[in-house]
Amino acid sequence: MIYSSTTKLYITHIKYMNGCNKMDIIFVDAENIGLKELEKLETSIIDKVFVFSKSNCIKLVCEKKLYLFLSDYPCGSNQADFYIIAYLSRVLSSLNHTELTSINFKLITNDESLISAFEFQCSQLGGISKIIKTNEKIKTDVNTVVQLTPVPAPKSVPKIKPVPVPKPKSVSKPKSVVEEKIISHLKSPETLNPEFRKKLGISQQDFSRATGELIRQNKIKRSKGSKKKWVTR
Fold first, then answer.
1. Residues whose CB falls within 8 Å of the CB of residue 156, separated by 6 or more in sequence, listed in order
2. Residue 221 host element (H or E)
């Protein structure tokens, strides 16, 4: 993948600013959150903001707020997601350990698959990931409780004893087929790279989601012999 001179300049500037203050590198999935949420975004002067979209309206907002507008990826489903992860890898690999620990890598999106891939990529290369969902306000509104005036019951209604209802037996959910397949091949240390994924015959999206879930559940861990390799616990 070819990166523009503007991208290289941003990465150089990140390395320079990192010596001054703790900063945020923000990846905005504008195709997912839309124009209004982008306009609400508040950042500091030292933060770096990468906005992924093909919209001219979003491009104008980026020019006004001095954000880096990125649109040089193919049209189609999930193409922006793939480019965000590739761009994240580019930035992460250009920084050393000290720089990585003093930077927050933030992702603004509501796409769960992209979130899983983003967190996984940061964990692989030592970055600190933080996720911001713009739909959390909607969830709060849905959970609002409305108090209604109670209606008094008729005096002649007899009291009825409640009949105990037996609790259904809990049924454990079956493990993901993809997760089981990955775990079965991690009895010995392996690198979670494209070659390993192709060996298992798993799509990139399913592989990123499953490995991210296994890491969160502490079902796999880094190998003692090599930090780039993973093994089952």
1. none
2. strand 220-222
Ramachandran area for residue 39 (φ above 0: left; ψ -120 to 50: alpha; else beta):
alpha
Query: 128: which strand partners?
Result: 104
pTM: 0.53
Residue 208: both structure tokens together: 């990123």
Letter for the amino acid at 109? T
One-letter amino acid of 82: F
- Going by C-alpha positions, the residue among 73, 19, 27, 30 that lies closest to residue 48 is 27
Low-confidence ranges of the chain (pLDDT < 50): 1-9, 12-13, 15-16, 18-20, 138-149, 170-174
Measured CA to CA, the distance from residue 32 to residue 111 in angstroms comes to: 7
The amino acid that residue 86 corresponds to is A
Cα 220 to its chain centre, rounded Å, is: 19
Please return the burial class of 219, using the count of CB atoms within 10 Å of its CB with bins 0-12, 13-18 and 19+: middle
First-last CA distance in the chain: 35
CA 95 to chain CA centroid, nearest Å: 20
CB 47 within 8 A of CB 70: no
